[in-house]
């Protein structure tokens, strides 16, 4: 009897979680007809925002994966002095409010920032540029990926890497042929999290790169720009973002299960 | 010069490792000892997965490691096959891809060569199966096939049978003996089980607390343990001979060097006969044949070591043999080197393993 009550309690908790988390999303689609969704995509500005969001978030994700994967592997497999300090520093942006991230980026890479003149000398413009959006997205999304990838690499049986070495693989080859596929699921979910975070990024982008249609106005910024004068349009664009994000999330999860990244399969 | 030569000092947490091993030609050696003795570390040092200081590893005249001269061949450059305790098969690759992982040569015929290698261990039909779907015994065979796929000059096996259940183990052990005989590689097996070492290896190194405390054949270690530790660890006695099943349902074993014994194990050909020292009773030489024990050997006492209330008695049959009796019987039989006695034990207490 008591066990039955406990089970009911568990289901009730899950129901509450599910209701609270999905209801607002459902509400978007209740207020937005499929016609509104299509109409919102008919606007040049909305299409530009969506294209810009995809382009910048993908560029940020590529940078994060290419640089972050070896870094996460190092953090997961080598013991060195100060390792835990490094791990904490890498995770710091996770707890920074986006506004602080934006200010920090301006203070370091902005025209008046620490490296501002150096970047200027090198002919690199970030503020109010698409490149600035990519920098902001990379800054806020990278810790999500690093954390997941590091955990996934730490969970890989070290004997597998040693076995690869005794089978003639160099350290680099063992990393590519054994460690990455074995950590595939964790890497894929890290990619999904980082990509999702980048797609939804708002505050740091607004402060560092501004909100110029076609140049720095990503979908969240476009939603905010419509919010005050055209709520329906803002809702419709939100619906589009939900669909795109959900599709990305599912496809990345599927990738994690595919044989390429070492998930299930025969 | 053929053979493997290892000298290494290393520190692992509380353990001070200080070992010296020499294994000739293409023999199979075993390193036995309790857990935490540093056995697996020695294998890792040979394979280059761990660097001792100082250390020297020479295989067939080729220097793999010499910390004094700054030589340290990377693991992938050492002709060394390694079978890990839990087999360490790559979970994302099918059996044949696991075997083909390290295969040199052109890509296109790798599958064919991997299948051939799997066929040697009768697991060709499992070529496309992932490790997660294999049984323990199947995994062991795939891992063995993989560790031999590069035709290594040294094969290192870390507790090759420990991951198997008791039923599979005996069978897998016999197969492993055959596989080790069939390869040109020098093999080193690490195990905590003395009888497993006796079955697999020609020569045994007993390790305790980071050091090799004695080396010898299984029979030598049983008969002339250098310390009470080795005596306790060596457990069973191993006598070599040739087995021949007889009409009465028992197997008769003609011992090398003379003598005959019987066992209830049915097997034919060259065997090792295993018996625990505490199964062996001693009677005064020439005593009347009264007990039900079928095995009776006239032997000569070569050593007597008292361990607490027991006495380990080293015997020559002429093969070395050891009996364990109470201190009381030791005194009443007046055992001392040179005394001739009769060693008796039952056929049911005699295990036979193929050699």
Note the main attributes of this structure.
heterodimer; A: 266 residues; mainly alpha; 13 helices; globular; B: 355 residues; alpha+beta; six-stranded mixed β-sheet; 21 strands; 23% helix; 36% strand
Describe this structure in words.
- The complex is a heterodimer of chains A (266) and B (355).
- By secondary structure, chain A is mainly α.
- Chain A has 13 helices and no strands.
- Chain A has helices at residues 2-31, 34-42, 44-77, 83-95, 98-109, 116-121, 130-154, 158-166, 171-182, 184-200, 203-209, 219-227, 231-257.
- In chain A, helix 4 packs across helix 7 (130-154) and helix 8 crosses helix 9.
- Chain B has helices at residues 39-47, 95-100, 110-120, 136-147, 166-182, 194-200, 218-223, 228-234, 327-332; strands spanning 4-12, 15-23, 28-32, 55-59, 62-66, 71-72, 80-83, 154-158, 186-191, 203-208, 211-216, 237-245, 251-255, 260-263, 269-275, 281-284, 295-307, 310-316, 320-326, 340-345, 351-354.
- In chain B, the strands form four sheets. Chain B has a six-stranded mixed beta sheet with strand order 7-8-9-3-10-11, with helices on both faces. A five-stranded antiparallel beta sheet of chain B has the order 2-1-4-5-6, covered by helices on one side. Chain B has a five-stranded antiparallel beta sheet with strand order 14-13-12-15-21.
- In chain B, strand 10 and strand 11 (211-216) form a beta hairpin.
- The A-B interface holds A 157, 159-160, 162-170, 177-178, 181-182, 184, 259, 261-262, 265-266 and B 44, 47-49, 74-76, 78, 80-82, 84-86, 88-92, 101-102, 104, 128-130, 146-147, 149-150.
